[in-house]
Amino acid sequence: MPKGLKRALIATLIAVALYALLGFLVLPAIALHLANEQLERYVSAPATLEGIRFNPLTLETTLSGLSIGEPEQLGFDRLYLDFEWRSLWERRLYLADMDAEGLRGEALIGQDGAFNLQQLFETPEPEPAEQAPSSGLFPLYIERLAIRDAYLHFQDLSHDEPIELTYEDLDLELAHLGTQPDNQADVSLLAKAPGGGTLEWTGQLGLAPFSSHGTLSIAGLALGPLAPYVRQAAAIRLQEGTLALKTDYRLSVDDSTSLALSNTELKVAPLMVADAQGAPLLRLDRLQLGGAAVDLEGRRITLGTLGIEGLVGHVERGEDGMLNWQRLMATDPAPGTDAPTETGAAPQAPWRIVVNEGTLADARLTLADRVPEQDVELAVGPLDLSVSKLDTGGQAPFELALATTVGKQGSLKIEGTLAPDAREGRFTLESQDLDLRIAQSYLSPFLHLELRSGLLDSSLALELTGIDPLAFTVTGRADVEQLHTLDTFRQRDLVRWQRLGLEGIAYRYPNALSIDHVELEKPYARVVINPDQSTNLSELRIDDKDGSTAREVSTPASSAEPTGDDTPFALRIGGITLKDGSADFADLSLRPVFATSIEQLAGQIGTLDTQAQQPAKVTLAGRVDRYAPVSIDGSLTPFDPLQSLDLTARFNQLELTTLSPYTSKFAGYRIQRGRLNLDLHYRIENGLLNAENHVVIEQLQLGEKVESPDAVNLPIQLAVALLKDSSGTISLRLPVQGDLRNPQFDVMPVVWQTLRNLVVRAVKSPFKFLGGLVAGNQPDLSEVPFAPGSSVLQPPATQRLDALAKALTERPVLKLEVEGRSTPAEDGVLIAQARLDREYRYLWYRMQQERGEKVPADALDIVVPDEEKPALLEAMYRTRLKQQPPTEWDDLDNPARQGLLRAALIEHWSDNASLLRRLSQARAASIKGYLVDSGGLDAQRIYLLAPSLAPVDDEPQVTSLLHLGSL
Length: 967
Known about the structure:
The chain is about 20% helix and about 45% strand. By secondary structure, the chain is an alpha+beta fold. Among the domains are: about 210-325 and about 350-405, no CATH class; about 420-540 and about 570-610, no CATH class; about 640-765, no CATH class; about 765-965, CATH 3.30.1330.60. The chain has a 36-stranded mixed beta sheet that branches. The chain has a four-stranded mixed beta sheet with strand order 37-42-38-40. Strands 39-41 form a two-stranded parallel ribbon. A hairpin with a 2-residue loop joins strand 22 and strand 23 (about 470-485). Helix 14 (about 870-880) crosses helix 15 (about 895-910). The radius of gyration is 60 Å and the shape is rod-shaped.
């Protein structure tokens, strides 16, 4: 062997021996010393590395017993590194194997937010130097990296409740990990998650640029420990929840971050969420997601199937008008900070969400409203909801179906399609037995009204055609059954019905409603006039004493803005059917009080149309106080009755005793008995009223007199007697005419004034009223003319008495009082002349008897010779005047003397009250006799009054007066 070669070989062996000696013994000791020295320098807590072993031949290095912190915060039992010699010529650090055992970590975030691992190391500030261009990551390649039995304990004390997470038995293995571009390493991770769950990750990982793809799987992960982080994002408490997740992912971090999830399956079972005060918000038995995908860069979420079972939720509107869920998501910026803004940045596209099929099964919701003074709570469920083909970025409508129970017995079903932008949609809505009492709390602040019952049934179709402006139509039918309202002010029924049916509904928002037919079964209403003239309806309103009748709730300003559509509202009702209606009416302002009822009201009303303005036919019939029939027939233009109206209302056999309170107040008499028939015919053409009111009262009998300050000062009994005919019936016709468009014209006051005028006219001019009952233009029947000095009825008088007898025959409850009259001016001379003639006869008759002459049986039948009259005249003067003729008459001739004697007797008898009274009595007797004998009147109805003197007038006749009264 050549010496040079030998020396080279020996030198090589020595070098290798020295290298091995240094590598096995010296270098590990020096490295351990330097390592601990650096740990002491750069670690702020106690830190030690127990040992380093190095194989200089294979470059295998083992570090053992690293412990940092006291108590230990970071460390490992063993770290094995297998360096390859190829690192020298490949110009990168090449590790064939890297194996860590017993890796331990204690990560702690303190109450002040400080991170213990960050504070554990003290890194010196780099010296300023020129920045060299980055050459990328350190060249490194690891053939295999394994971490076994790692332990990580994490604790966060910066929240109200501490967060503590522990990951045990963590095994991580990477293969072919390098920092070269596009280098992809195989990754496998398996760990025990907090709460007994497992975490598994398989895939590939690249570092230049950072990218990864693979599969992530989480099973049995307890969500409770993460509750503080959830509460930091929203004011809720995550009380219970277990998560299972499996997804394929693809992540890339370069100039921008790209993350895509696919084949994602997620299951949460169960889940319980409460608000910050611990009140329950949400609980569900299971949430399961399948076939989901998320594209962060494309801002798209796709849900293949989404199923939620056994959800129990609570939605509440607080006193401030905000929903509890709104309040949870509301966040305020920190004081003194403003929300970050980006100037010049292009707006990001909205997230696109696609749901192929979503279901909500057996859900139960509690809806509460704390705004009304009386809290409102409504239980909804079990609720089933399904959504399919939902794509918020597409144009095709998605399908929606909902079925639920509302309250104790109500049900609601909704099915249809809706465009993703909510601009178009078609739905069918079916409801049954929805309890309307839920509206009670919203009525109570404003009305003394209790909604005791009411159920809504409906079958509707909704078509949405736009939202800007809003446009939709609703068609179908609706029924409101068993409606019952109570006047809580008086604790009495107010309005109720058995059923209100609306058929053929067609509503077009915002100004058109059409209903083919309305059917109202067994409706009832109560109307009461109180003692102060107010009504029970006016009592329903609750007076606003403090300016608000309910808790004020803030509403968006836009809600009060007008729609801008001035089109008049078009309403059309094809017809209304009323079945078995009833009502109660009471007037408590009267004493005694008045009360009546309407029963069995039924009928139909024709088409009501605000645009056509065609008269609607009206046919109604019912009964008042059970036995008196009522009917209303005719037509009217309902929305403009002043244009055209022709209605006839008939009330038959109404018991007048029910009206006794009104007659007591306004007439001063109660009603003993009687019945009322009304035939009212009202016609209106272009505002002009032409009404005919026919009032028929049968067998009216007034009762006791009642003191009333409102009673009319009229002889009511006489008026009743005047108005009654022979059958005891009062028939009155009260026409009314006027212009209803004149604000000074009011129908009812005119009717009452017409009736009052009729009564006043009858009472003040009863004979004129009676004269109107017989044919012809009759003179005043209250006066009977006689020729002066006569009690014999002449034809003019008998004609009047014939008419009067006929009228009294038709008014059998009237009595007649006859007042015979006479006057000295008209009757005196004739009475005296008749007396003188009788005196001639009586004196001559007596003289003939004394002479024994044959005479007739009656003195008035004797004839006095003219030659005997002068002597008889002288005797009568001396006897009747009880004086002698004046002596100056002795020189007069015979005719002159007899003339003076005669004139003296005539003057004496002309002013004789007894003679005038006899004439008046004779005249009254003549009138009564004629009415009884010729007129056929009962003598008991005619009374003779004391005679009287008539006033002096220019009439050639003297009249006797007649007076009417009631029996």
